[in-house]
Amino acid sequence: MSETVKYLLSEDRIPKAWYNLAADLPVPLPPPLHPGTGQVIGPDDLAPIFPKAVIEQEVSTERWIDIPEPVRDVYRLWRPAPLIRARALEKALDTPAKLYFKYEGVSPAGSHKPNTAVPQAFYNKQEGITRLSTETGAGQWGSSLAFAGSLFGIEVEVYMVKVSYQQKPYRRALMETYGATCIASPSNLTQAGRDILAKDPNSNGSLGIAISEAVEVAASRSDTNYALGSVLNHVCLHQTIIGEEAILQMEMAGDQPDIVIACTGGGSNFAGLAFPYIREKIKGSKVRIIGVEPASCPTLTRGRYAYDYGDTGRLTPMVKMHTLGSTFMPPGSHSGGLRYHGMAPMVSHVKELGLMEARAYHQTECFAAAARFARAEGIVPAPESSHAIKGAIDEALRCKVEGRAETILFNLSGHGHFDMQAYTDHFSGKLIDPTFNQSALDIALSELPNVG
Predict the structure, then answer these.
(1) Do the bridges between strand 155-161 and strand 131-136 make them parallel or antiparallel, or are there none, so unpaired?
(2) Among 5, 7, 58, 133, which lies 20 to 30 A Cα-Cα from 160?
(3) What range defines the domain where residue 346 resides?
(4) pLDDT tens digit string along 14-27?
(5) How confident is the model at residue 224 (pLDDT cuts 50, 70, 90)?
């Protein structure tokens, strides 16, 4: 058993409840504010675009939220996801560290995103909603919601960030295979999109813009709700099934992580793995928690902790988060799922409380780490996940220098099978590190809402 590679749980051990970190935070999360009045929002303010069950989860401080049986039945298609000991990578790095990764690429859509897409589609179906609108960056969330919509008979309309729409045609094809409609954002179909195109006809788009378009569509139709793939509390909640499984699997391995690592864009896969371990850290565990983000969109390492809008069109509630400013346009990169101007309020709050660390890497060094991982472990990672791999490799090499046999657990949030053009560009030397525009950041931060 000392050479075990995969730690697998049986289907009857799929967690029966999601974990809500809000119950254990030593300081409560600052409340969201209405975009028009600046007042604390209530459930009624969210009712036009979200189902009741999702709204209740968004504001809940209950520690455990039961997973509905129909959702657990769908989860059985790929959950429990494997925990894998990266023995070949350990050997390649010649490190005394032990490396484990939770592999979420086994889902039908190839990433962690169905963990929240399925319950969101289920709760909307319960309320008689027949259409869902959403945004997507790299396409992982859009394809996941398309998959979930196909299971529950819900029409799905996806606004995909234009630069990713052009870079990742197979993600579009996957959404269409599941029956969804995929639209390049900004588009001429919404006022938010038309406003952006009037200012910049060649706009590459951003998640903030795509969110504005999707929210506008949902708010204008009674048969349509909005679904979000990251950032909000209920999304982070649904993803904690990752960390709850990992805790059980690390016990099977007879080990406990000294370091937990995940990439951070909006915060969902980080929250999924890390929040259950942050619970243990609050209780006194010495585990280090590290979030890794792109240097081209460094919300945690260079953003300001302040109230801001979740979208460029300023249609969404204001939340307190680490932000680059809702008008900030991140440069185009192949980690489209991490190109968001803000960080999940709960992840941002955790950072402010000193319960996690953050670091930023350039995309070329992340792709180099991804290739190193693939050549050892055989799995081609999503560009987003490569940031976590780079962080894990750096920690393993530190352990080598220091002669420390620490245990490192990271989240491999998805595979890169639809991202091979990015790898082709990397190997041909065409992939560059986008320049971060400090003056654009300064302007965007100067436009933050004035909240007393």
Answers:
(1) parallel
(2) 58
(3) 6-13+68-110+234-446
(4) 999 999 999 999 99
(5) very high
Q: Is residue 81 assigned to a domain?
A: yes
Distance CA 285, CA 302 (A): 28
pTM value surpassing 0.90: yes
Residues above pLDDT 90, as percent of the chain: 85
Q: What is the pLDDT of residues 235-283, one digit of tens each?
A: 999 999 999 999 999 999 999 999 999 999 999 999 999 999 999 999 9
C-alpha–C-alpha distance, residues 164 and 145, integer Å: 17
Backbone Cα Rg of the chain = 20
Q: Identify the H or E element spanning 147.
A: helix 140-152
Is the separation of the CB atoms in 180 and 133 below 8 Å?
no
314 CB-contact burial (10 Å; exposed 0-12 / middle 13-18 / buried 19+)? middle
**Helix H or strand E segment including 83:** strand 83-85
What's the CATH number where 276 sits?
Answer: 3.40.50.1100
In 3D space, the residue among 109, 266, 78, 106 whose CA is nearest the CA of residue 180 turns out to be: 109
- What is the 3-state secondary structure of 310-331? CCCCCCCCEEEEEECCCCCCCC
Instruction: Report angle CA 209, 215, 216 to the nearest 5 degrees.
Output: 90
User: Mind listing the pLDDT tens digit for each residue in 88-129?
Assistant: 999 999 999 999 999 999 999 999 999 999 999 999 999 999
CA-closest candidate to residue 8, choices 236, 191, 249, 183: 249
Tally of domains within the chain: 1
* Dist. CA 399–CA 168, nearest whole Å: 37
Looking at every residue in the chain, the average pLDDT score rounds to 94
| pLDDT above 80 (res 420) | yes
Structural domain includes residue 256: yes
Residue with tokens 């793939």: 229
> Contact at 8 Å (CB) between 157 and 133?
yes
- 82 located within any domain: yes
- DSSP codes of every residue in 409-451: EEEE-BB-TT-HHHHHHHHTT----PPP-HHHHHHHHHTS---
For residues 342 and 357, is the Cβ–Cβ distance under 8 A?
no
Contact 41, 72 (CB under 8 A): no
Neighbouring residues of 396: CB distance < 8 A, sequence distance ≥ 6: 89, 90, 93, 95, 97, 99, 408
76 within domain boundaries = yes
Tokens 């909640």 found at:
237
Cα 276 to its chain centre, rounded Å, is: 16
